[in-house]
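Hi V.,

Quick status before I head out on leave. The structure for the redesign project is tokenized and pasted below; the design run finished overnight.
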């Protein structure tokens, strides 16, 4: 298959597997999504979804959030990891939203990325999931799969994002990035990967990745004998 055929194969296979796409992080508006995405750095979405109800019961908007101290926020979000940085970020960005944006989350990369603890990926998720603006946030799953599928060279997430945006039509970015994340979790994880279940990589995967997989399987077998 040439590159265009591989891209079409990816799009069609994912559409079939995920006719409706669950949104990974529970939220009710742009602010609660922004906080949930910020908490998800180096933390599982499952864990974030357990912690956000506790936090949002006390403060689900910037005005209530700044009434809490950084320490109070940190105590609640501690299970998500990186809590000293994240609690400062949440308190600080809530204050900036009040001071500069009338308490509202801005619909712009520039303003979002000015907020403490908000990087390009967090901003991209908010733009796509809160505002429906086409974006392609690249997380570890997308970075890994774009490399496995020989659609990007895997040098860094910035390059992967550029490649994804170039290869896939803009009108499906918002759905597609979520489909790839779910696929990566279910069928093509970093650890405990079973290539036989991973139909996309098996069909269009980078030759070196597939060769390495079979080499590893063979050496595991030898160890077990």
């Amino acid at each position: 298959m040439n590159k265009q055929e591989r891209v079409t194969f990816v799009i069609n296979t994912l559409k079939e597997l995920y006719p409706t796409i669950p949104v990974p992080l529970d939220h009710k508006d742009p602010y609660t999504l922004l906080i949930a995405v910020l908490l998800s750095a180096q933390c599982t979405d499952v864990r974030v979804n357990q912690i956000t109800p506790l936090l949002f019961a006390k403060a689900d908007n910037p005005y209530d959030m700044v009434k809490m101290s950084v320490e109070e926020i940190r105590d609640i979000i501690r299970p998500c990891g990186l809590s000293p940085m994240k609690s400062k970020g949440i308190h600080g960005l809530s204050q900036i939203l009040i001071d500069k944006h009338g308490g509202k989350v801005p619909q712009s990369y520039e303003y979002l990325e000015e907020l403490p603890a908000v990087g390009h990926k967090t901003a991209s998720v908010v733009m796509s999931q809160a505002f429906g603006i086409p974006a392609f946030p690249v997380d570890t799953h997308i970075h890994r799969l774009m490399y496995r599928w020989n659609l990007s060279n895997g040098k860094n997430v910035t390059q992967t994002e550029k490649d994804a945006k170039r290869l896939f039509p803009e009108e499906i970015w918002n759905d597609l990035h979520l489909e790839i994340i779910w696929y990566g979790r279910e069928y093509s994880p970093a650890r405990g990967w079973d290539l036989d279940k991973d139909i996309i990589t098996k069909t269009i995967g980078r030759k070196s990745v597939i060769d390495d997989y079979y080499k590893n399987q063979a050496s595991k077998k030898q160890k077990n004998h």
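Above is the designed sequence. The radius of gyration is 20 Å.

G. will cover questions while I'm gone.

Best,
W.
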